[in-house]
Design goal:
- The chain has a single domain (about 5-190, about 205-390), classed as Up-down Bundle (Growth Hormone, Chain: A).
- The longest helix is centred in the middle third of the chain and has 53 residues, at about 135-190.
- The chain has about 400 residues and is mainly α.
- It starts with a helix and ends in a 9-residue tail after the last helix.
- α4 (about 70-90) runs antiparallel to α5 (about 100-125) and α10 packs parallel to α12 (about 305-330).
- The protein has 14 helices and no strands.
């Protein structure tokens, strides 16, 4: 018989999957649709700035909110906000201004991070006791990896729906998927999941734990290292320098995200059972070295397509292991009564790294090109590894 906590874990995971599909599809839908309308790539990238910025705010406040009202409610609020964000895009084409779409993306960013924080923190609270002791890394890695794989599938789904149903039809399809998921999770999840018996103080959103603070700082530079060359610079390079079609660029990114998610799910098999500070440092240094090698090979000339594609594949494997390791540690080190606030604070740093990486990616690429983006990425990865040195061995948050 399946443990009740495990059934609830599957419900949370299913809701997270449905949301992730719409998140990936929405991003690809906006990219392709506004490209059709004649927007330049950098202008399209700017549509997502509010998405990343409000992720910082949401993660900072979301953990406290989850402790106050329950993680099930923050998950449902996230789904409802995503439905509103999608509905905002159903206006006539002439009314879909840049500012309006940025506002819709801001809501979507809030929705995404409420949903993610709720799901990640919920793992700690829902898994059976034996899973907590023996397989937490495996379950966290599965949730995180499957989410990223489904986000890649969402990229495909967005393009497919746009081609087959049109923009409005694609948006309606995603709204219906989310409505069904919202109703199902509201019926199946326990009330007050993760809610503290006593009122959580707002000041508690700022972590007082050295382990959480140093891990969050390492996370900031880890995701900055990815996005500083991945988010804006790479697609512009593939399309503008290598001459790839927009379809090829979108398909490549979708496959990369799916592969990245698969590696995340398998990462527990690649790491020691008691992974901790040492593993974070070692894998961070490996990521920095790989990025340096890619930058050096680009400087040497040769077939830039192969250098970038193969280099990105290797980078993705190592980055996925780093990301899964960080995600496991924040959940593992958190006590039940602070898990939502610790996870929220940690993912605030994650969103901050993505925002800085996105802005630097566009600016540095426009200034000096992809090579300098890679050197900055290597420096960020090195900083992430060095910050991990400050993590206490065997830390307990």
């Amino acid at each position: 018989m399946i443990d009740q906590g495990f059934r609830h874990y599957l419900t949370v995971t299913g809701g997270y999957w449905a949301f992730t599909l719409t998140d990936g599809a929405l991003r690809m839908l906006v990219l392709l649709y506004f490209h059709q309308l004649g927007y330049a790539p950098l202008a399209i990238a700017m549509l997502f700035i509010f998405y990343e910025f409000f992720g910082i705010v949401t993660n900072l406040v979301g953990g406290w909110l989850g402790a106050r009202i329950g993680l099930n409610r923050t998950m449902h609020i996230g789904m409802a906000l995503q439905i509103v964000a999608l509905a905002m895009l159903l206006l006539p084409e002439a009314m879909l201004t840049v500012l309006w779409v940025m506002m819709a993306q801001a809501l979507s960013g809030i929705a995404k991070d409420l949903n993610k924080m709720s799901a990640k923190a919920g793992v700690k609270l829902l898994l059976p006791t034996d899973a907590q002791a023996d397989g937490l890394f495996r379950w966290v890695a599965f949730l995180t990896g499957s989410k990223n794989a489904l986000k890649g599938i969402g990229f495909f789904m967005g393009g497919f729906l746009l081609a087959s149903c049109g923009f409005a039809g694609a948006v309606w399809a995603m709204i219906m998927l989310l409505v069904v998921s919202l109703v199902v999770t509201m019926l199946l999840l326990p009330a007050n999941l993760g809610r503290l018996n006593e009122r959580a103080k707002f000041s508690a959103i700022f972590s007082k734990s050295p382990a959480v603070n140093w891990l969050s700082a390492a996370r900031f530079f880890l995701f900055g290292a990815r996005d500083v060359w991945f988010v804006v610079a790479l697609p512009l390079f593939l399309q503008g320098v290598l001459g790839w079609s927009f379809t090829a660029v979108g398909g490549f990114f979708a496959l990369w995200v799916i592969g990245y998610g698969v590696v995340q799910s398998l990462s527990p098999a690649l790491l020691p059972a008691r992974a901790g500070r040492g593993s974070v440092i070692v894998w961070g240094l490996i990521l920095a070295m790989i990025t340096v090698v890619i930058a050096l090979m680009m400087q040497q000339g040769g077939d830039l397509g192969w250098v970038v594609v193969v280099g990105l594949a290797i980078f993705g494997i190592v980055f996925a292991i780093n990301s899964a390791l960080h995600s496991y540690l924040i959940v593992s080190w958190s006590d039940h009564d602070r898990v939502s606030m610790n996870v929220g604070f940690y993912y605030m740093a994650n969103a901050g790294g993505r925002l800085v990486g996105t802005l630097l990616s566009g600016w540095i690429y426009q200034w000096q090109g992809l090579e300098l983006c890679l050197w900055v990425a290597a420096a960020f990865a090195l900083l992430s590894a060095l910050l991990a040195v400050k993590l206490p061995a065997g830390a307990r948050v």
